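SAMPLE LOG
Freezer: B-3
Tube label: C17
Construct: single chain, 527 aa
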Amino acid sequence: MSRVPNSSDAAANVSGELAAARAELTRLQNRERELIEEIRSVRTAANAEMDRINNLLKRKLPGPITRLPPSVLSDIIYRTICNTHPESDAHRCTKRELASVSRRWRHAILNCPQLWTTIVIEPAWSSPLVMAHVKRSGACPLDITITKWSSVNHTPQFQELLGLLVTCGYRWRSLDIRKDSGPFTTLILESIQYMMFPAMKRVEISETQISDCPLFLTSRYAPALEYMTLSKGNSINQIPNITGLRSLGVYLADDMSGSLLLSSLLPLQQLSELVLSGTGTEWPEADSICLPALTSLTLILSNPRPALAALTTPNLIYLGCSRGVLNTRFVRARSGYWAHIFQDFPNKFATVWRLRLFDTTSDSSVPLADAADAQAVCTACPGVRQAELPADVISSLFAKDDTPADHWKDLKELTIKGLTVGKIPRILTRWLIKRESSRKSPFKVTFCEFKRTGNAGASGCWLASLDKLLYGHCVLELRDVPLKATLNMDSSRSLVDTRGTSKVYDSLDMTKTRYMWCCDCYNSAKI
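STRUCTURE (predicted):
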């Protein structure tokens, strides 16, 4: 038989449960008070942080440029001044304007010697300005430019400014003499003729009448000279033996002897870059001038052929050649322009892998390049990898039958200049498709310096057609592409283009306009 609990046992159980429940309630109430107190403290801390944030936001934060390190700020100012033209205004005016922005900018400019190394001796510069540049440049090398002296009334000022710089000739790093004539050329040469320039590395003389080579252009007076340019106006037939000369540019007048000039280059065994321009006469015999260290040759001559024939350049990498100004009837009777220049030079420039052909004339009567032109160029320079050519050679270079461009087995980049807007070079596409069959590396084609026409139809549709034609066959780059679009007025007093993607606000009376814009770099490729 089961035992029946009595009333005393039941009361004890209820009393025990009630005590446990009251104890749990007390614990929970205590926990509630703790949580409420914790929440109150958290809210207090959150409010304090919010007040702190609000106070910080009310403060005026300095601009990003004011937080730049002094060296970075000085570098930005230096680049700004270097990219300001003309150069004389950059160092005479722009520097002063930037120094007036703030005390910090002024301190950065005044205490950066590199900002004071360029000195321009011209009528607009004063003696205090020149002296400030000499002092603030510290011991840094100086870049001197002498220009714009023409009036005899400025002679005292010129002598004073040049006299300030003569005392620190040992710091001259470069000298640029240009646009000076008459007595000032004599004054310049007399003032610096016997000076020593131990740090001089670069000299450029242009548009200045100089007949005899100055003494300061010799190794004795400028032992560190590496770069020299004698542009239009000089009549120096022979270059002195400058031991360390690496780069030379010379303009030859009609009566100057090319034979004397090139012969004087034979002792310059370190010469790696040569630029010849002008006309010249009496060129030396073929293959009589050997320049073993020459890697870059640019000829901007009325007839480059005699110079090409005379030079032997076993290590030449870059060759730039202008079409020149030849007798049109003579050329038509024999062959094309480029054929006249490069014919009879098979494999003479086999080491050249960068070739640039350009036209310095605007004569519309000049005939287009023919097959003989392309064949002569490709035969003379069979190792070309990068070519920059005028647009009129496309049809002959990539002719359907016996393509001259096939001689360039390693050609990887092609730049075409002067393509007429609206024209599609389909013959180039056929060559690219044929090239793909040989599974060669991706080919890059660049079009630039487009010729504009008055044809309104040569618009964005032409660009789309060109892209579609070459898409997938090459890496296509278009530089400074002239495009046209029509803008129409809508009811919201704005101009929208035909695609409706951009708005240009203008007056209500303008209902239609056309504008031009340039595409710096347009790429289309299927890699």
